[in-house]
């Protein structure tokens, strides 16, 4: 997610724009939890009763690909950086500076602000109790920076593997690298399905590792995605290539005099984005257990079964999650390579600010959600909405779209403003 020129030596406009899109999607995804989605969040809207099937489906759909794509891009960027340097200590120092320090600062300063926002009263005693509880129960990073800390761990492992490979007598040829990459992209996802299912029997969705706060239920996809991105660079691939692609999606990188460039669009064998979306959404219907469909509480029962345990829905969810990632990942990259392969011209939606946007989006989302709740609670609108069957079906998606898109835009503005007002932050983010 970090986009500094010190990290990326060759800018790829298509990947920059994809990363910006994914950052906005993360913001909307987290906003949706307040309006009937699954997962933990500081705000639960009074305008929504219980869990919304549509919003929960939206959560699961996003989860299947957006963080995996972040790790794929990060793996490729790290492979490129490691190829261009022999000073691995400097590489890790730079990564620690740009990934580790922001994670610590976020955990100690930014995240507690969001907790204070949801307090019913901001008197000194309430603030003191809240902060004392937060810091005394702190056992690692908190919030969205689990991604940056996990990425830092992956980069450190990549350096160790890189150094170990240099001492091998037999150096892998380009053909060997291409073959290894081909095997991983074609068959690796099936191993991820099996490993994810087995891990969920002991660590269901919603269980976190200490310190880095990574969910074991999704960890294998992230390892797979990072490794696939890393090997894609060594194999000469410029975009993600999945097991369902008919031909190679390799593209030729063009580099300009200022160090920026784009991947020259070429014919791609990736499944069209519209087809990938249709298959992913329709196949999601396979997850619910048939015996729960006639239950009034079928959604919670299905989620309980799908998120962990030795159950068929748990296996089907693991299979669908990786199927969707390997359909949507290549399709999205191909789409951005073909249609969004130029420098961003938006005032706020720019890759230079996407990392800052990511770091500030939680308190921004919570602030806007709290404001919306105060408006609803102070009017008669809330009672009308809660009593409407149509609202209970469609309202959660309406609120997710309206509040989520607003939060995404405001987060981008705040991130951009912070970088411009505090230039010292540019050394970190």
Description:
Helix content is 63%, strand content 3%. The longest helix has 33 residues, at 389-421. Residues 3-9 and 249-260 have low confidence and may be disordered. The chain has helices at residues 13-33, 53-63, 66-83, 88-117, 124-136, 146-166, 174-200, 216-234, 273-283, 298-306, 312-339, 354-377, 381-386, 389-421, and strands at residues 11-12, 252-255, 260-264. The protein contains 14 helices and three strands. Helix 1 (13-33) packs antiparallel against helix 3. A hairpin with a 4-residue loop joins strand 2 and strand 3 (260-264). Strands 1-3-2 form a three-stranded mixed β-sheet. With 429 residues, it is mainly α.
